[in-house]
What we know:
There is one protein chain. The protein has helices at residues 5-9, 56-59, 103-107; strands at residues 18-23, 26-32, 38-44, 50-55, 65-69, 74-79, 82-87, 92-98. It is mostly beta strands and 110 residues long.
Amino acid sequence: PIKSSAASDVYKRQIQSYPVWQEGEQVIYAKHLEDGSMAVGFFNRGLQSAKMAVSLRQLGLRGEQTVRDLWQQKDLMKTSDHFESEVASHGVVLVKFLPGNSRAQITEKP
């Protein structure tokens, strides 16, 4: 079971995740969270491990973001550009980008 409230928040909102990148057996999904951050899942359905990357631009984010591993409950890095990870064969990496301006925040009117 997922013990993290951040990880369980991925499933709370009515807005579903959507693919931001796909190539062969690898796909990256993103989902906006209630707190304005974004959960991003890297899925490798292939037989070999794969290096996968996503840019903040692909996610609709801007500015410096903290990337947090949701399963390990630890911050991995800060980035203003992109995040990449080695994903095991048939593996998943689930991270959260925060704080930052998601597409929803950018389009909201004050």
